[in-house]
Amino acid sequence: xxxxxxxxxxxxxxxxxxxxxxxxxxxxxxxxxxxxxxxxxxxxxxxxxxxxxxxxxxxxxxxxxxxxxxxxxxxxxxxxxxxxxxxxxxxxxxxxxxxxxxxxxxxxxxxxxxxxxxxxxxxxxxxxxxxxxxxxxxxxxxxxxxxxxxxxx
Length: 153
What we know:
Blueprint: H1 18-39, H2 44-47, H3 58-81, H4 92-95, H5 105-124, H6 128-131, E1 134-136, E2 142-144, H7 145-152
Helix pairs in contact: 1-5, 1-7, 3-5
């Protein structure tokens, strides 16, 4: 097992069904409240605990989720407004070393709540044609918007 993916790597679906997409949008919309509930009672010791050797702590994971979802939202907006844009990647492990990852998780949870409210509104109003739009990673891999929804759910 690759320790970077404790629940396994994302297996991108090839054919999405409308009910799956609606379920994934619901998961995206409820993530901020679910994370808030899960972290509400965590003290400093629990926020800085790691669960595997060389892994991120809970605080870093919360901040990373926000960074990841900000990037995912921007990639989707690029795909909706440009023809198969090449999206920028980022060095997740280096971002986790920056000082903003030491901030209280409350700050990131507030940002995530606002981002997901806006993202959910966009997702709920996409057309079938828009769901098929794509973006491309620098290594050449393509992702459809409907796959992006599955990934972030």
